[in-house]
């Protein structure tokens, strides 16, 4: 029975969610005084009727900053992390309007505003 449950779990996690790319573009801004540039990608997740906002940004020292928010509105809650350390993820509040978005780190303070082309 354990094998059957494990096999079913692997099967269910291997089914990809139906995603449709909506936007990918370059963005620039600053977070807590640090200038960042990078990419924002937005996918529509049809299985859940939501959008996934994913960003990968770099500072002048090539430190990497990632964030991910999944929401069905123009604002939502997600996570952000630095240099691949997702296990140290911070909770963020995210809001987007047109090609401008803001992020506020609710765990450690700090905020940022970004504009995409």
* Structural class estimated from helices and strands: mainly beta
Q: What is the count of β-strands?
A: 8
Distance between the termini: 53 Å
Q: Kindly state the percentage of residues in helix.
A: 10-25%
Relative strand content: over 45%
Dominant shape = globular
Number of helices: 1
Helix-strand pattern: HEEEEEEEE
Rg (CA only): 16 Å
Question: Could you list some keywords that capture this structure?
Answer:
117 residues; mainly beta; eight-stranded antiparallel barrel; 1 helix
Polypeptide structure, described:
- The chain has 117 residues and is mainly beta.
- It has one helix at 2-14; strands at residues 19-31, 34-45, 50-58, 64-71, 75-82, 90-97, 100-105, 111-116.
- The protein contains one helix and eight strands; from the N terminus they run αββββββββ.
- It has an eight-stranded antiparallel barrel.
- Strand 3 and strand 4 form a beta hairpin.
- The relative contact order is 0.18.
């Amino acid at each position: 029975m354990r094998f059957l449950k494990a096999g079913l779990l692997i099967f269910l996690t291997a089914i990809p969610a139906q995603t449709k790319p909506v936007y990918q573009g370059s963005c620039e801004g600053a977070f807590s005084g640090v200038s960042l540039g990078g990419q924002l990608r937005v996918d529509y997740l049809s299985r859940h009727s939501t959008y996934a906002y994913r960003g990968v940004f770099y500072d002048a020292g090539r430190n990497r900053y990632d964030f991910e928010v999944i929401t069905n509105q123009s604002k939502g809650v997600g996570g952000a992390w630095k240099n691949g350390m997702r296990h140290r993820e911070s909770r963020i509040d995210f809001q987007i309007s047109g090609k401008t978005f803001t992020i506020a780190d609710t765990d450690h303070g700090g905020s940022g505003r970004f504009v995409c082309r």
